[in-house]
Design a protein that fits this description.
The protein contains 13 helices and 2 strands. By secondary structure, the protein is an all-alpha fold. The protein folds into 2 domains: 116 residues, no CATH class; 70 residues, no CATH class. It has a two-stranded antiparallel ribbon with strand order 1-2. The protein is elongated and about 65 Å long. It comes from Thermocrinis ruber.
Length: 221
């Protein structure tokens, strides 16, 4: 499936816009249960609506574009853009929780209000550091490869044991369970994770905070 977005403004067409829209788009898919759930309900046709809504929300929230400017540059009518921007995220969440009913109601194409509400909810969550699971998994895999390439055994061991863990991590309990018996340098992992600030939003932040905690422990010797 090719999702074509036409008329994206030159000034916002760089990596920042594309990356943020992509993160919002993936988070929106996440909220719907992932591609496997969309496939199960035969609703992959919702993807273009979600992509357009993600572009509209990001252009408005990040670049303060007017409805008319967004409509002209993304290739939608002004009324459609207005409907997306006025969509209620709370109502969208209620629909997501009844996904089977939503799939029956909007089987062929997702309604503008629904897509807008989900995109706004996804944007809010991404800005709060709650990324899509697929992106968190990808970041963990990449960080693991970097740690191994740089020969940082403790970082590699931590990431390897955390495969599949969802970020943000809200407290130390998950880390204690996954890292039981693991040594971070000369320290038991359970001791180190108690000293980290929570929530921890990404694998990169986790490694950074562990490094600071180790430095603090070494200074106390």
């Amino acid at each position: 499936m090719v999702i074509e977005i036409t008329g994206v403004p030159t000034s916002e067409a760089g990596a920042d816009l594309e990356q943020l829209v992509t993160r919002v788009f993936f988070k929106a898919i996440d909220l719907l249960g992932g591609l496997s759930k969309l496939t199960e309900f035969r609703t992959l046709t919702w993807l273009p609506s979600l992509a357009r809504a993600a572009y509209v929300v990001v252009l408005r929230e990040e670049y303060l574009r007017t409805e008319e400017e967004i409509a002209q540059k993304v290739g939608l009518t002004k009324n459609t853009v207005r409907s997306i921007l006025r969509a209620d995220p709370t109502l969208a969440m209620e629909k997501i929780q009844k996904l089977e009913e939503l799939a029956k109601e909007e089987l062929k194409e997702m309604k503008v209000h629904t897509a807008g509400g989900i995109a706004k909810l996804a944007y809010k969550m991404v800005k709060e550091g709650n990324e899509a699971e697929i992106l968190s998994h990808f970041c963990t895999v990449v960080a693991e490869e970097v740690a191994r390439a740089l020969d940082i055994p403790w970082a590699y061991a931590v990431l390897k044991h955390l495969r599949g863990v969802k970020f943000p991590i809200q407290d130390s309990q998950v880390l204690k369970e996954r890292l039981k018996g693991v040594k971070i340098k000369t320290y038991p992992a359970e001791e180190v994770v108690d000293k980290l600030p929570y929530p921890i939003r990404t694998p990169a932040v986790l490694l950074h905070e562990i490094k600071l905690a180790i430095s603090a422990l070494e200074e106390q010797k």
